[in-house]
Input
Amino acid sequence: TGNWQIDTAASCCILSTMATRILPLELIDKAIGSKIWILMRGKTEIVGTLRGFDDYVNLVLEDAIEYAPDGRSGGSNVKTELKSEILLNGNQIAVLVPGANGPPEDSLAAQSG
Output
């Protein structure tokens, strides 16, 4: 057997760093019941209240609003209010912004007013 020395200051630092780490699904779990801004693949954005999710990041949203570019006109956007709960396929999600106060001014959601 060899002589092992443990640097308690270094191991304490490592443990505290590991304790502050958060996993992606934990972050989403903390956002249940709050507004979430979602950027989908392509140029669609959705803002709604997160009600639930699964391990594949399929989301259940309530009071969701979809913002998408209007294919018929060059610069305008279409705002669609989705009146019921929706299930959003996790494979189509590019970015989630939980707890956001809304999209930034240069997003489709903000431009659609």
User: Anything to note?
Assistant: The two ends are 71 Å apart (CA to CA). Strands lie at 35-40, 45-53, 59-69, 77-82, 86-88, 93-98. The chain is about 20% helix and 35% strand. The chain has a mean pLDDT of 81.
